[in-house]
Amino acid sequence: MENGQVTGASTGLDRALTEIIFEKGDTAVSRLSTLKLDVSKPREIIDAFAAAKEKFGRIDVVANNAGRRSFGEEAIEDADAHDVMETNFWGAANVLREAVRFFCEVNPMGVGGRLLQMGSGAGLQGLGAMAYYSASKFDNKISVITIIEPGGFDTPGIGKTAWAPAHPAYSMEELPGDVLRSLLKEPRLQGDPRKGMEVVYKLATLEKPPLHFPFGKDAVNLVRAKTVALLADTEKYE
């Protein structure tokens, strides 16, 4: 695979992935398109793929990670909630749709392409104070090859989280909202973004990549806990 396109590359995990791609250069992905892109604007998505076609002629890998966070119990502004869904759900869906079209109609016949869709551990298990964010990540499993579902990683993007004002009724330190506020105020997240994206980079070279790829200890623990609970309920009432 020679040509790649990454969304959300200005910060966070995909910034780390982009740096790795540039450093490795001559291995799995040797050319990468970098363009200013707001995935909530469909026209810019189409233009970005058109620019990649003009520059490279084909795209082999699309890593789709542009995202937005807005957390809070119940006081999230409508505009913030819409921004989360426009970016995380519709933005992801529109990039994926254009990527599939590109793979089918622009790339040479038989070449196809590979999609790496960044989901979230919050898309594996809904979490308190993250309702809209979790919903946006649950719903982006659309016609992709690998759904990447990271846990908490220590990236600059954490500081860009939009928070709704704390509701007095939920101001108890044991409740999810206060726990999350405390965690993100002084982040002590387990994941090293550089190490994590080294693994994601390798996914692009696998002949048979997984459909789901939860990574980070907390994401793996979410999968295990949800699976155990789901099986317990199923077996109890089957």
From TrEMBL:
The keyword Isomerase does not apply. Gene3D superfamilies: NAD(P)-binding Rossmann-like Domain. It comes from the Eukaryota. Keywords: Oxidoreductase. InterPro entries: NAD(P)-bd_dom_sf, SDR_fam, SDR_oxidoreductase. SUPFAM superfamilies: NAD(P)-binding Rossmann-fold domains. GO terms for molecular function: oxidoreductase activity. It holds the Pfam family adh_short. Belongs to the short-chain dehydrogenases/reductases (SDR) family. This is NAD(P)-binding protein. It comes from Dichomitus squalens. The lineage of its organism: Eukaryota, Fungi, Dikarya, Basidiomycota, Agaricomycotina.
